[in-house]
Amino acid sequence: DGGITQSPKYLFRKEGQNVTLSCEQNLNHDAMYWYRQDPGQGLRLIYYSQIVNDFQKGDIAEGYSVSREKKESFPLTVTSAQKNPTAFYLCASSIWTGDNQPQHFGDGTRLSIL
Amino acid sequence: ELKVEQNPLFLSMQEGKNYTIYCNYSTTSDRLYWYRQDPGKSLESLFVLLSNGAVKQEGRLMASLDTKARLSTLHITAAVHDLSATYFCAVDRYGNKLVFGAGTILRVKS
Asked: What is the pLDDT of residue B40?
């Protein structure tokens, strides 16, 4: 079955440590997105990518970095510069950014501080 | 800057009752999405609304869009326990970059 796989499901970060969240899709979608969800809030866009080797900052990109070396993969690194990283992180994909189809979401990674 | 407001933020309903969730947004957009999220889970797409006057229905849920009023509604008919979840509306700024509302937590009591 086609879908989006995020790993790990739970992740713990120590002070000063960078951690990387994995996102892989086999839907052959061109566009991929990273969102952050805090308790009781909606999702906020961190980064998005429309094609391989290209990505743009979203609304809350500070303290995060991404890469898009393959169409299927869009990993997110939470750097030590992100002072409040505890949140639920969701990866999504869509056919392309101009399409009317909804974004498809992975199951998320819950990141906590040790 | 596009802002999206949902209300109510929390809704406790009795089974069998009807209710409506409202989604207001601040700037022009021609695409609006409704998603459902179960606790600790991912988001599931419910409806895509693309034009003024669009109405879509799936089971006990019906969504509508009024682009002139910048308002979408999600109407729940004869609620059942399985509908308990958090419901989000999301508005397309441009290029499928979405701005989400804060979500409405729905609890259906038997």
From this structure: 86
